[in-house]
């Protein structure tokens, strides 16, 4: 606790990592939460902080990002089912394709979807960045709900969720419990939005300023043209 101030509880953010995850999907999202501070405190202030972040892999072993560094997860899937979490995020990247390849890895895919369902029953907010939406869609969690995904991989992801109300324009979509973003850098914008939703707009604005990040606050305003994914 910083000084004599009493702050809201620290919320715990879980992020799934797997071989071939897209680095910015994870690290851009992480930065929004890791740089956040309670109002009246500075970046250099000691804990408590608004958020604690945990990386989660299937077996807890190191995984290599797509064309990038490896990471050492904090938890495996089993421990994640025992620990309190407020939010779970599934990133995208080339690794999502083998992750959902039921022809080559039927047992692994079945186990992944079962774990996602178990986590969904325990967590108040489920999110995805980029093609991570394919996992939520394949699990049936997005059926009947609006959702976003990577514009370049739109058709591939949409194939896993024919009942999903896919949005081919927005940077991210808030469907209540389920919040999904378009590709790569859109996940960072969604991250700051989620900070705002979970800890207040002032905390998110201070975090964006501390990160010197040009936060695109309006999910309906594409930053590249043509404006939408090819459908």
From TrEMBL:
Question: One short Pfam family name for this protein?
Answer: DJ-1_PfpI
* All residue ranges annotated as the DJ-1/PfpI domain in the record: 12-195
What InterPro entries has UniProt attached to this entry? Class_I_gatase-like, DJ-1/PfpI, INH-QAR
User: What PANTHER family does the database record attribute to this sequence?
Assistant: ARAC-FAMILY TRANSCRIPTIONAL REGULATOR, HTH-TYPE TRANSCRIPTIONAL REGULATOR RV1931C
Which protein, by its recorded name, is this? DJ-1/PfpI family protein
